[in-house]
Amino acid sequence: MKIGVIGGGQLGRMLALAGTPLGMNFAFLDPAPDACAAPLGEHLRADYGDQDHLRQLADEVDLVTFEFESVPAETVAFLSQFVPVYPSADALRIARDRWFEKSMFKDLGVPTPTFADIQSQADLDAAVASIGLPAVLKTRTLGYDGKGQKVLRSATDVAGTFAELGSVPCLLEGFVPFTGEVSLIAVRARDGETRFYPLVHNTHEAGILRLSVASTAHPLQGLAEDYAGRVLQKLDYVGVLAFEFFEVDGGLKANEIAPRVHNSGHWTIEGAECSQFENHLRAVAGLPLGSTAKVGESAMLNFIGEVPAVAQVAAIDDCHLHHYGKAFKVGRKVGHATVRCADRATLQRQIAEVQALIQG
Amino acid sequence: MKIGVIGGGQLGRMLALAGTPLGMNFAFLDPAPDACAAPLGEHLRADYGDQDHLRQLADEVDLVTFEFESVPAETVAFLSQFVPVYPSADALRIARDRWFEKSMFKDLGVPTPTFADIQSQADLDAAVASIGLPAVLKTRTLGYDGKGQKVLRSATDVAGTFAELGSVPCLLEGFVPFTGEVSLIAVRARDGETRFYPLVHNTHEAGILRLSVASTAHPLQGLAEDYAGRVLQKLDYVGVLAFEFFEVDGGLKANEIAPRVHNSGHWTIEGAECSQFENHLRAVAGLPLGSTAKVGESAMLNFIGEVPAVAQVAAIDDCHLHHYGKAFKVGRKVGHATVRCADRATLQRQIAEVQALIQG
C-alpha cells in the first residue's frame, strides 16, 4: 500500500519509519527541498496548491493523509475527488480554525475557555470589555508553537493588536488559571473503533512543548476520553487526533485539537505497545488498531534548536534518540529523546539527565 | 554520519530503520535492482567486486559495515584502504569460512562438534571413517538457511557427495544429538566494551529458522557469554556477532558464528531496550552501547515465502509486523512478526495465533 502524506517534516518521517515495516511505501508532497521525510520515500516537491502535483500524488497512492493541519481547504477538496483522504476535509476544516473548533466544543458540551470571534479592532475592544483581561488573542488559523498569538494583560496590549497579528480573523480567549496541561492522543478507525493512550502531562516554555510525561491511572482519564469521544464521533474522524486540555479546578477545559499525530505522543514509539504513528496508519489504511497500553514508564523531551552530541544522548541509560535530520535553527524542533524505564524514580533521574544535556 | 552497507536486504533495511533516528544516512551496495533496503537510502547497484563502485562508496561514507558475511575477502581488503570497515577483514575472513571458524573454536577451548577439512572425495571417505555417521557435510563458505550442506546417514549418502556440493572445499561435522538450539547475540564496541542479549531458543524447519523465543535467566547464559567473549576478544571484534550453539548434555557446543545482525535477534526491536540493529550501529560508529535488557517477554516468527494479510497480523494483540517489501517466493524470508507481552502464558497463546496464521 502506498500512502501519500501532505507535508514532509518530522511527523512524516516518523510515519514512514512506522509504516515501512507494515509493507507501506510513502510519497511526501512538500515544497521544501530539504524536507526531512524525503529520504524515506518519494518527494513531490511542490506547493500545497499545485494541482498538477496533487493530481500526480492522487494517481500514485492508495490514500492521502496529513502531517500538519494548515492545508488549504481547496487542496483537500481537490484531492478528495480522486483518492480517499483521512482525516476528512470536514474534520480538517474544523480543526484548523479556532472559531469552528471552539464552537464545536461548546455545541458538544465540552468545557472550553470563554471565547469570541474577532474580525476587527472594534470586535476586539468589545470582546475585551465582555471577557475581561488577561486574555489571549490568537489567529483563527495557521498558529503553532506559540506563533500567531499574543497575551493581553492591560489596555495598552489591546490597542492596535488586531493589526499587529496581521488584521486576519482572530479569536479572543479568556485567560484560564490552569494548574497543568495534559493531552490525550486518540485514534479512531474507519469502522468507528476508538482507542486512547494514557493522558500525557505537558510542559511548555515560550509556547513550545519541552517535556511530555505519560501518566498512570490519571484521575481525569475517563473525563478526557468522554470529551474526546464526543468530538471524534461528531467529526466521524479517522486517524490519530490529539486533544489538548487545561487542568482547571480538578476538571478539564479543552484548549485545542490537532487532527494528526502530535508531539506530545512521540513517547509512544517506545512507551506504548503500538505507537501513535503506527496506529494512525492502521486507522487510515483500514487495519485493526493496535494496543495503546503503556510499556513501562516513559517521558519525551524535545530538542529545540540543536540536537546534543549523539554520543552524549546515547550514554544515558535507556534513552532513545530521534534525530529529525533537519538543519539546526533557533526555536526549531530538530529532535527528541524518549526515556523509558520500569519506575518513576528512575524516570525522574533520566529526565534530569537529558535536561542537563539540553541546558549544558 | 553516513554508513555504507554491503548488501541491501532485510538486514540492511532494519539497520536503516534503526539508524535513521540516530541521524545516520545510509548507502547500500547491492547488485539486485529490487534490493529491499534501497528505499531507505542510496542504492549503489553494482557487484561486490566492482572496484569503481566500491571506491565511490568509500568516498561517500564515514564507515562501511556488512549485512551478510559472504563478501569476497578482496572486497573488504580493497575498502579497508580507504575507509574504516567494521567488523574487520580478519573477523570476516574467519567467520565466513567454517574451517577457520571451527579451528578458532578449538584453539579457544570452545566445545564444538568433531570436524575435518574436506578438499576431495578421498578426504571425505577418510573423515567419515574417522568421525563416523551420521555426519553433516557443509561447504566451507557461502552456506545459509540449510543451503550448501547435506546430512550423511549411510555409505550411499557419502558416495559422490563431494562433487554433489560442487567440488568446493567443505567441512565434515560429526552429528551432535542436541536437545535444543540457542543463540547468543553479542555486541562489542570499538573500546572493547561487550554486552550480551538474553539467550534465544531457536526452532528450525528444513534448515530455516522459524521461531525464536527470548529466554529469562537461562542456566547456560553465563557459559555462552564466556565462550562468545573469548571469540570477540580474539577477533578484536566490533559490532554485533551472533553465536549459534547446540544444547548437548546440559552444556553447549558451538555451531557457528555470524559476523552481523542475525535473524534470531530480530525480537530485540521490540523485546529489548536497545535493538541489535541500533547496537550494531552504535558499536561501529563508536557510540556508547545501549541496554540489552529485555522489555517483557517476546518471540519472533519468520514469514517464509509469503507474508499473511497485514490486517490478519495486525489483528493479533501486541503483534508487530515486519514486512521486508520483498517479492514473495517459496523458501524466501519475506517478513517476520514479533509478539511481546507481560507473561509467558500470554506469549505462548500469541505464538500459537501467529503460527495458525502461517499455517492457515
TrEMBL record, chains A, B:
It holds the Pfam family ATP-grasp. GO terms for biological process: 'de novo' IMP biosynthetic process. Residues 102-285 form the ATP-grasp domain. Its EC number is 6.3.4.18. InterPro entries: ATP-grasp (IPR011761), ATP-grasp_carboxylate-amine (IPR003135), ATP_grasp_subdomain_1 (IPR013815), PreATP-grasp_dom_sf (IPR016185), PurK (IPR005875), PurK_C (IPR040686), PurT/PurK_preATP-grasp (IPR054350), Rudment_hybrid_motif (IPR011054). GO terms for cellular component: cytosol. Pathway: Purine metabolism; IMP biosynthesis via de novo pathway; 5-amino-1-(5-phospho-D-ribosyl)imidazole-4-carboxylate from 5-amino-1-(5-phospho-D-ribosyl)imidazole (N5-CAIR route): step 1/2. ATP binds at residues 98, 138, 143-149, 173-176, 181, 204, 255-256. It catalyses: 5-amino-1-(5-phospho-beta-D-ribosyl)imidazole + hydrogencarbonate + ATP = 5-carboxyamino-1-(5-phospho-D-ribosyl)imidazole + ADP + phosphate + 2 H(+). It comes from the Bacteria. The keyword Nucleotide-binding applies. Keywords: ATP-binding, Ligase, Nucleotide-binding, Purine biosynthesis. It is an enzyme of class 6 (ligase). GO terms for molecular function: 5-(carboxyamino)imidazole ribonucleotide synthase activity; ATP binding; metal ion binding; phosphoribosylaminoimidazole carboxylase activity. Catalyzes the ATP-dependent conversion of 5-aminoimidazole ribonucleotide (AIR) and HCO(3)(-) to N5-carboxyaminoimidazole ribonucleotide (N5-CAIR). Belongs to the PurK/PurT family. Homodimer. This is N5-carboxyaminoimidazole ribonucleotide synthase. It comes from Pseudomonas baltica. The lineage of its organism: Bacteria, Pseudomonadati, Pseudomonadota, Gammaproteobacteria, Pseudomonadales. The gene is purK.
